[in-house]
Amino acid sequence: MNGAQMHALVERLYPLCRSITGNGVRRTLEIVGEHIPLEIFEVPTGTEVFDWTVPQEWNIRDAYIADASGNRVVDFQQLNLHVVGYSTPVSARMTLEELRPHLHTLPEHPSWVPYRTSYYAPNWGFCLAQDTLDAMPDGEYEVCIDSTVEDGSLTYAEHVVPGQVTDEVIISCHTCHPSLANDNLAGIAVAVALAQSLDNPYYTYRFLFMPGTIGAITWLARNHERIGKVKHGLVLACAGDRGQLTYKKSRRGDADIDRVLRYVLRERQHKVVDFSPYGYDERQFCSPGFNLGVGSLCRTQYAGYPEYHTSADNPDFVSPQAMEDTLAVCREAFSVLDRDRRYVNLSPYGEPQLGKRGLYDSLGGRSDAKETQMAMLWVLNFSDGEHSLLDIAQRSGLPFDSVAAAARALQGASLIKE
Amino acid sequence: MNGAQMHALVERLYPLCRSITGNGVRRTLEIVGEHIPLEIFEVPTGTEVFDWTVPQEWNIRDAYIADASGNRVVDFQQLNLHVVGYSTPVSARMTLEELRPHLHTLPEHPSWVPYRTSYYAPNWGFCLAQDTLDAMPDGEYEVCIDSTVEDGSLTYAEHVVPGQVTDEVIISCHTCHPSLANDNLAGIAVAVALAQSLDNPYYTYRFLFMPGTIGAITWLARNHERIGKVKHGLVLACAGDRGQLTYKKSRRGDADIDRVLRYVLRERQHKVVDFSPYGYDERQFCSPGFNLGVGSLCRTQYAGYPEYHTSADNPDFVSPQAMEDTLAVCREAFSVLDRDRRYVNLSPYGEPQLGKRGLYDSLGGRSDAKETQMAMLWVLNFSDGEHSLLDIAQRSGLPFDSVAAAARALQGASLIKE
Amino acid sequence: MNGAQMHALVERLYPLCRSITGNGVRRTLEIVGEHIPLEIFEVPTGTEVFDWTVPQEWNIRDAYIADASGNRVVDFQQLNLHVVGYSTPVSARMTLEELRPHLHTLPEHPSWVPYRTSYYAPNWGFCLAQDTLDAMPDGEYEVCIDSTVEDGSLTYAEHVVPGQVTDEVIISCHTCHPSLANDNLAGIAVAVALAQSLDNPYYTYRFLFMPGTIGAITWLARNHERIGKVKHGLVLACAGDRGQLTYKKSRRGDADIDRVLRYVLRERQHKVVDFSPYGYDERQFCSPGFNLGVGSLCRTQYAGYPEYHTSADNPDFVSPQAMEDTLAVCREAFSVLDRDRRYVNLSPYGEPQLGKRGLYDSLGGRSDAKETQMAMLWVLNFSDGEHSLLDIAQRSGLPFDSVAAAARALQGASLIKE
After folding, report:
1. Interface predicted TM-score (ipTM)
2. Res. A89 pLDDT band, cuts 50 70 90
3. Contact (CB<8Å) C349/B290
4. Which residues of chain C lie closer than 8 angstroms to A350, CB-CB?
5. Cytochrome c domain location, by residue (chains A, B, C) (predicted)?
6. What is the DSSP string of C391-415?
């Protein structure tokens, strides 16, 4: 899946009204399922998941504010951000003054519509441009939200790429945001493309498409026994804007995923930030009871761009090139992670004689030792069970690929073992 | 006690002739006792304290060098620095040449009188201005030191502010210097004001007023069984000059007191220096057998100003503002230390649902998360029994007060425990 | 042995045709043995040493390429670098075209002759200046290499300076390079001078003169049981060029030898580099099965100068002053290492009373504490069994000599013990 294809997927998913539950999520997963096979999970309202309870399901068919002439001045059909997520149903006539406490605008960006939700406190409201509000005369309006908040279920999906081992890497992205492109349709698109690109990986890769917070908590609660298998993970969000890449470290700070991402990003313009307990679902994976080696990859970070959580985060805000670049970093990172293992030198007393195995030049005295030979010496010397190939690549300054190739050659010659 | 009151205390204590023993110390402690209740300890001459023995007690009534006309050219009544501390009694007539080996001056500051002692080697001497010496004609002088060095006792005092726990913080200042204002009457004054300001602290605070070296060693020898209770400590000295604050770390270097002081000083002009086995009584508290978490707070450090140990260290050399500033840092430091504890998150699997407990805004989607909410997320995530609230404040960049308030709220909601 | 004498030794050894075996090595050790007594070891061809086997012995009497007129255009008698080390015997006439695959030049330095070997793959060849090759007309040449490759032995030598303890320091230098002055006749000369200079050292010093790689591996294989005694070591190479000193750390990176060398070099222009598994015999001593605290001292490092492994590395390339400087650093380093021990304060509760032992001035109050007294306070405070005297010197900023002298005084007063 190239950048243009990822962008097309973003555009196709954009109009759907997603939330933490409901048919918008189901339809989104159907479309994703056209690209990669998904297993869909429905968790009933009322299910207890750690400290939380799966909420009632929200669905919405229509919503608007109409003026005295019956013109819809605010219309859900035009943009689903216009309704506060999880708004309870309303059908009423009220004056602008009565309506005002239910209206949300962004005065600093008067033409943009903000994104607001009220998942756990029953409420209703509209989000609109400040310009629109300013143009609304006093008087009476017809207010309609044709929604339901009823027992149902929370929907999430998994896509698994089996590996050579059952130890897992989880790739997670949130599916609960309505018409917001960078946050997080771009993350979904990159995850789909990444899943497609994996070819017989070492680790088992589990892709999680689920609503933020409650989805991750639900998944963790239902997969408690699997957590021991999760060795690494990455939360993908805001994967398509034109800013430079940002890697947010896991809570551990020195997990393998942290070291791999820093290594892969080292020659790109990028930013690395420490873990903080805010942002996306790394908050849950890195809660102290789990403390998983899960980092987060974004381009411009959460709340770091004005378009964040507004109608300006539309498909034009994300670019095919940026998504391709995010994908390339992911692919390189997991390629390194998949090969980054610790070996033990089976001939650790002095150097083994590489020459008699055809691994070393017979003509000595030259000052330009070859990278492949140097890589073998590095792997032999540091394969003491403590240093991984990535450690060796970083310490030696040699490319990871050369170090991994040297390890393969040495393993082939029975000079090292895993 | 404000800066003016601390300065008044310095001025009142200044004329007394203190030493490591004697009535000058007793009178000093009487005056301190007018401000805070003291328990006075008298340790008899000859008491063995570790490698040392409590020395004989020194008292002095008068001392002078009079010229041929009977004029006192050097007069203890004018300034007690004129006599070398612990001088043995003398009553003699001698020529200037005979006298000279017993005279101490500061040629580089010819109008200043130095401070000298000879506690453990019986000797006598006078300290005087180089200018005075230069003006003394050859000829005979009457030399008188009306002192006694006799069996008696070493005097020190404690003031205890009981805390919620019996674990202790010790605040120590030396009481053995005669007319020297910054070293250490300012330290005594700040200690008194600090003691008055403590209000139902968490730790038990023990203030120690005792002579340098032999006093600290005596206290340690007599309180060997208490040492296990001493969790933190601070030696106060040179607390009133106009220089910037200097914090000298404990020998451990990363004791709680070290981290707290560095935190509190971070936004002030200040200096932090590593532990060295010279200076004040941190030398004893941080000797390898004890290795206590005791740092030292000064303004300009020991021997770091020319007035150090001279008659120029008089009450004009210390300022009310500087003492108030030192006091403010101490109060803030102990306020942080008293609240800096480690908690354990009782709901560590994912985030607990703060909203249902009224601790989190119900309206989602905003990009300006509130500091109080952020502080709760930080405390929850890092309350794993390993990170203290100060760790969390430093890692999050949030004010310690916000972090401590979040911990209180979370403890109130039974989400964390100590 | 001063710089001039070391240089004379380099000049005397220079013409010999050394290799990893053979009579050139034996003659070299005879000459070294005129300066310091050596024990010579002969290890027969075919001896298995870890992953390697001691090879056949190579000896050479003559070699040349003669033109049609019988003129030797390339002549081993002029420069032994002209023959590829371990060349098998040849006696043939062949055209330049046939000869060319056996000729090695350095096009980037057309007047220099490179140094090449082929120890383990039977082969023959000549090294010559590019200028010489360019001047050789097409046509037939007489090619002669009068060498033997036969069962024999590998020769190495040890010189031991017994110490007060049987724990050992090894000093190693390679003896396998033919007419190359900096690499490594200068290293041999500095090692000889260093051995002569040691006078009743604390450690036992073992000097190893042996061929690179196979020699070190042979020594390690034959001394497996001694390795536990080897506490420190230094590989000497390239010890005489005019560049600044380079210290290459042991694989451990923080071995005592690493800390000592860094300390001794701190006030000189120098470079410290991390361990890498290439270079000289530190490769073997620091292989993961041994991981000894062995560093390497050079001036300009391996392959870091164009003259490396060429005929330009001749006696003019090394200077008496540079060898003296290398020697001075070695002597200072081993002087520190020999005295760098950990002590335990026998009076750790508070400071002991130094005054009553005559170790401290009786007159107090001065601000210019003496270095000797400060050094005693530092040694007392940090002699907790964990800090060595070098740690204390570095932490205090005091000269190591002062700290060591303080330790002697305190040990004499029974205040500390080893």
Report:
1. 0.94
2. very high
3. yes
4. 50-52, 216-217, 220-221, 284, 287, 289-290
5. 147-268
6. HHHHHH---HHHHHHHHHHHHHTTS
